[in-house]
């Protein structure tokens, strides 16, 4: 059949459970949610198909993984599946997730999609429309790499800076990925300095729960910028300011958190 808007070909079929798998970066469902789904299915049946893309004779579920999980628990051997075109898969992977995802989870999804495209098309440009549509914000890839380097990273504190200086690159993905790894390291270097300033404030007896955000706000060289900034210059300035603050941490106390 054809979808009524884009006229893309889609198929609805029954697929054996053994041929189905789930993308790895979806948030795990709460037990209460799964229990409610199971109760609903037992009353009404499995009436909403899962959505999947076919790859190598298998089907990767990109929407409906919780229904699939409950169906397995209920003993289902096959599932109704809406099979969508391959070119829709990545867009749906980024859209069909719970809205309350935190910055770490959004970054993990973006990095997973990025790596998949990198493996398939290493010479395609990072600012190619397909990848841009799928992950929307390039800085999430940088943060995803940084989170892999440090699970304690406060990504939300750095996101306002990255939004202004870390856009998509007009480079082949294999080159862009190496640049992003370098950018992630700069984020981690800045994070270590923020922690050092926090520690210095503790020694002075001036630390508070929002100190991290106040420090980054003070050192942020882009907070009044209206145009996109250069990443390397931005982080060079940020890191230099943080080093100065480590020596004189109380200068940050008059800064209003934005």
Topology record:
Layout: E1 11-16, E2 20-22, H1 31-44, E3 50-55, E4 58-63, H2 65-73, E5 78-83, H3 86-95, H4 103-120, H5 129-135, H6 139-149, H7 155-165, H8 173-204, H9 211-219, H10 231-247
Parallel strand pairs: 2-4, 3-5
Antiparallel strand pairs: 1-5, 3-4
Name some characteristics of this structure:
258 residues, alpha/beta, Conserved hypothetical protein from pyrococcus furiosus pfu- 392566-001, ParB domain, 2 domains, 5-stranded mixed β-sheet, 10 helices
Describe this structure in words.
This protein is α/β, with parallel strands linked by helices and 258 residues long. It folds into 2 domains: 11-87, Conserved hypothetical protein from pyrococcus furiosus pfu- 392566-001, ParB domain (Alpha-Beta Complex); 101-254, no CATH class. The protein has 10 helices and 5 strands, in the order ββαββαβαααααααα. Strands 1-5-3-4-2 form a 5-stranded mixed β-sheet. Strand 3 (50-55) and strand 4 form a beta hairpin. Helix 3 runs parallel beside helix 5, helix 6 runs antiparallel to helix 7 and helix 8 (173-204) packs across helix 9.
């Amino acid at each position: 059949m054809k979808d009524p808007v884009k006229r893309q070909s889609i198929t609805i079929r029954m697929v054996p459970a053994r041929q189905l798998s789930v993308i790895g970066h979806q948030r795990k469902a709460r037990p209460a949610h799964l229990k409610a789904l199971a109760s609903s299915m037992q009353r009404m049946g499995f009436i909403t198909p899962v959505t999947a893309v076919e790859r190598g004779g298998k089907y990767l579920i990109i929407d409906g993984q919780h229904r699939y999980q409950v169906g397995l628990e209920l003993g289902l051997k096959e599932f109704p599946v809406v099979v969508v075109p391959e070119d829709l898969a990545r867009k749906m992977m980024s859209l069909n997730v719970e809205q309350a995802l935190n910055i770490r989870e959004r970054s993990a999804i973006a990095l997973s999609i990025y790596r998949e495209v990198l493996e398939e098309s290493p010479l395609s440009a990072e600012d190619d429309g397909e990848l841009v549509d799928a992950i929307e914000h390039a800085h999430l890839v940088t943060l995803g790499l940084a989170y892999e380097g440090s699970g304690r990273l406060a990504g939300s504190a750095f996101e306002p800076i990255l939004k202004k200086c870390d856009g998509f690159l007009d480079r082949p993905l294999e080159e862009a990925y190496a640049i992003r790894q370098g950018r992630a390291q700069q984020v981690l270097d800045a994070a270590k300095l923020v922690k050092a300033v926090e520690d210095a404030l503790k020694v002075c007896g001036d630390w508070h729960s929002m100190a991290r955000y106040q420090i980054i706000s003070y050192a942020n060289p882009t907070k009044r910028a209206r145009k996109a900034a250069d990443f390397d210059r931005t982080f060079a300035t940020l890191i230099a300011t943080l080093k100065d603050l480590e020596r004189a941490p109380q200068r940050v106390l008059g800064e209003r958190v934005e």
